[in-house]
Amino acid sequence: MELFRKKSMDYMLKQARGKKSLQKALGPFDLTMLGVGAVIGTGIFVLTGIVAAQAAGPAIILSFIFSGIACALTALCYAEFASMIPASGSAYTYSYATFGELFAWVLGWDLILEYGLACSVVASGWSAYFQDLVRGFGIHLPQALSGAYNPAKGSYIDLMAVVIVFFLSAVLLTGVKESSKINNVMVCIKIGVILLFLAVGIFYVKPANWTPFMPYGFSGIIKGAATAFLAYIGFDAVSSAAEEVRNPQRDMPIGIISSLAICIVLYVAVSAVLTGMIPYAKLNVGDPVAFALRVVHQNWVAGFVSLGAILGITTVLFVMMYGQTRLFFAISRDGLLPKSISKLTEKTKTPTRSIILTWLMATVFSAVVPLNQLAELTNIGTLFAFIVVSISVIVLRKTRPDIPRSFKTPFVPVIPVLAVIACGYLMVHLSKVTWIGFLIWFIIGLAIYFGYGYRHSELGHWKDDRTPADPVKN
C-alpha cells in the first residue's frame, strides 16, 4: 500500500507555506493574463484557418464552442482544487492527495510530456513565424540554421527556436513578479491586436460566405473540435501558479474561469469574422487572419496582426515553460526527482535549476528534433490530466467532505462526469500512433519511479503516511 501513500491536506499546506515554498506575488489579474497568454496564440492566428478549411467550414464556430465547453467543465474542477490546495504541481499534486503517490507520479510524468512537447512545438512554430516575418524585410537565415535536424532539406538546427527559449528562460529567472509583468504587457498588446482585427474585419463580412454552414456535416464539427482542443490546453497551466498567489482561495477560481471565458469569446468571434470575410476553402494558409486582411486590402492592419501573432506565440511558450518549471519543482520537492532540482534562490524564491532543466529540454527538442508527428502527444497528455482531475473532485467529495472549499464545482457529480465524457470522447479520436507513444512514455515513467522515485520519496520518510502538519522523522 506504500505505492498509494497520500499527502494530507495539512502537509501540503505546510509545504506551500514553508521555507521551500515559492514567493507569493500574483493576483487575479496576473492569473487571468497567464491563462489568456497560454491559450490565445497559435490557435487563434493559425489554427482557425486550418480547422475551417480542412474540417468544419464556417461551423468552426461550433467546434470552438464544443471544445470550450469541454474545457470549461474541467476548468470548474480545476478551480475547486486550486482554491483548496494552493500548491505547485497542478494535477500532479491533486492526484497525490486523492489517489496516492504512484498515480501522482504517473500523472506528473504525463504532464512532463505535455509541457515538454508543448514548449518544443510552440518554439518551433514561433521560429517559423518569425522567419516568415523577417523575410518580408529581406532577411534570410542560412538554411542550416532554419529548422530542426533534417539533412535532406539542409537544416541542422533551429537557431531562432534556441534564441526564444533562451530569452524566456532568462525572463523566468528574474522571478515570478517581474516575469508576470512582462507577460501582462505582451498579453494586453495581443488582445488589442485581436480587437483591432475584429473592429476592421466585421465591415468586410459577407453572410453568403457562411453558406453552407456545415459543409463537412456534424462529423466535421467534431473533428474540428478535437483539433481545436489543442488551442485551449494551456489554461491548466494557471493552476501551476497556485503556490505563488497572494490569496489563492479567492483568486485561483477567478483566474482560471475568467481566462477561459475570455478565450472562448475571442476564438468564437475571430472564427465568425474570419469565415465571413473569406470563403472557408481559401483559409488553408499559415497566417489566415493576416491573409484575410490582405485580401480586403487592409495591409496596415495585417502588419499589426503579424506582430500580435508573434507576441501571441511568445506568451504561449512563456506560460508552457513556466508550467514545466513549477512541475519539475513540485515533483523534485517530493523527492520523486533529485531534490537539487527544487532548490530556490534566497531573494526571489525562484526555482533556478528547474528553469535551467526546462531550458535544456525545450532547447534540445525544438532545435534538433522534428516534432510535427509528436504534437498529438501534447493533446493526449492534457486530456488524461483533465479526466483524472474531474474524477478526483468526485472522489474527494466522498472521502474528504470535511475539507474547507472556498469554491465548489457546481452540480457534482454531473459536471465532472460530463467533463470525463467530453475529454474521453476527444481522446479516443486520437491516432493509434499517439496512443502507442503515450504507452511507451508511461512504461518509461514506471521504470524511473521504481528505479529512483519510490526509494527517495519524501513522503516515504515519515512514519505516518498521512503526514501530519508537524511530522516526525524516522
TrEMBL record:
One cellular component term from this protein's GO annotations in UniProt: membrane
Transmembrane segments: 29-53, 59-81, 102-126, 155-173, 185-204, 216-235, 256-280, 300-323, 354-371, 377-397, 409-428, 434-454
Record InterPro entries: AA/rel_permease1 (IPR002293)
KW Signal (keyword) present: no
Subcellular localization(s) per the UniProt record: Membrane
Pfam families the UniProt entry points to: AA_permease_2 (PF13520)
Main subcellular location of this protein, as a coarse class: membrane
Key word Transmembrane helix present: yes
Alphabetically ordered keywords of this record: Membrane, Transmembrane, Transmembrane helix, Transport
Molecular functions (GO terms): amino acid transmembrane transporter activity
Membrane topology per record: Multi-pass membrane protein
Name recorded for this polypeptide: Amino acid permease
